[in-house]
Amino acid sequence: MADPFIEVNDLTVSIGSVRVVDQLNFNLNAGQTLGVLGPNGIGKTTLLKTIAGVYQADRGEIHLQGRALEAWPRKALAQRLGLLLQHTHYAFEASCEDIALIGRHPHLSALARESDADRALARKALHEVGLGDFIKRSCMNLSGGESRRLALATLLVQDPKLMLLDEPTNHLDPAHQVASLNLIFERVKNQSHAAIMALHDANLAACYCSHVLLLFGRGEWAFGLTKQLLNAATLSRLYGCPIRCIKDDDQEVFAIGNAV
Amino acid sequence: MIVSSTRARWVFALLAVLLPLSLLISLSVGSSGWIWPWSNDQTSSAILFELRLPRAIAALIVGSLLATAGCLMQVLLRNPLADPYILGLSGGASAFALAGMMLGWAWLPVPVSAFAGAMLTTLVVFFLARGEGAWTTTRILLTGVVVASGWGALISLMLATGDDASLRGMLFWLMGDISHARSSVLWLIPLLLGLALIWLRSRSLNVLSAGALQAELLGEPSQKRFWEIFLAASLLTGIAVAMAGAIGFVGLIVPHLMRLLVGSDHRRLLPAAAAFGASFLLLADTLARTLLSPRQLPVGVLTALIGVPLFLFLLRRARGIR
Predict the structure, then answer these.
(1) pTM
(2) ipTM of the complex model
(3) Which of A22, A50, A113, B286 is the Cys-Cys partner for A55 at CB 3.0 to 4.6 Å?
(4) Residue pair A198/A212 in contact by the 8 Å Cβ criterion
């Protein structure tokens, strides 16, 4: 059997004096999606950055396609792995097309300029995230949700085999949440990509993620199949608030138990 | 407001006309009257080729250096309002130049001491801001600003204690003055080569404009790149300041104006800024030496007098700036 797409061994990550994960172990294959769940400030972003190779772990190893993360040249890594950041801020006026186009950067040689084909990819991605009308518009005056989808378009243009997404559904209305996750899901299924995403909505995780990683704090974690791991009792413990599971004939839904 | 390719092409066409036109004007006018550059008269061609042309070339070079350094500094600090002097380079250059003038060291030409001051500041900011951790915008900005005010205090001290005879020269230098700058046409070759080298890395600059972390994720070694940009911008600024003193506003206004006219893609921005910076300073210097002819004004006064209202006007118009 081939190596798992990404392999995390005994990974210990801290931020300041706070332990994010202690001796984390998991494998993820192409075609699988991992949801990372946990309360605010537990270190989901830090963990994603560690897996992306832009944050230093205390101990442990991460292998991408059988090769240690730090052994990959930065550019080769960027062709295979991308991270949708939680916050994006644009300092300079540019068209949405130009912003999405920077996703092609790792695929081009140092001195090459973007071709028409590259521009076509950028436009296609903008259409996919529903920003088709924004191609020639400025990145400076976007709403929160539009800005989020522009960042997703940039990641789609980068088209890494492993997509890391830090709260991809932030600022998105329900329709756009589903549309965005569908886009990611399609790539995972049809192009045998893999995705790891930090989510706040257990219901979205239940729909889109084959696996989940729960971060309880103080380094405690749980990894497993979504079907086995996600239940009302575990989620209540995870978030420290009562969560109920409500079922009808088609669907199971997690809801906050004591909301007024 | 997004710039269309058609509009950018028009801007480049205008710049292509403006540059030779400003050179023609600057060669033709002066205190010894109007001279056509193709004039055959011996005295006239002596004035043209020995006085006006070397000074005009110097203005072209300084203008394009400052505008390019401004573009780089704006990427470095991720701020469209950064200028080449923001990290204290002009302060260091000025302090050294003034010290040289004050002590009357004939063996040390002012441009050499100014360049040494600029490079010393670069190294000081580089090593102080580098510290233990990673490069951050705030850290380099704070370091630069504090170093700049340190030089400012030294400059004030020298101005307060300097004798009256050297004070005028010092003030001219501080305001920026091309009247002593001479440059051979041959220097345009290394200038163009240097600018081309930076221009070839335009795509990297575009990616770095999106921030260090995003650039890193797209395969750019951000830390290394930012130090390279810092050193390149410092070198360009150091040369400009050594040639002509601390001319203000060119490095701020020109990149900003060109951003509005051709957009933020460095493939367009860099050549547009270099070309317009050259024309702008050349025309400002032509005004500086003709306005109160035969007296000469420091060109920095004119760039600021034109630059300040222009800048405030642009700032009011551009609502996108945060």
Answers:
(1) 0.92
(2) 0.93
(3) A50
(4) no
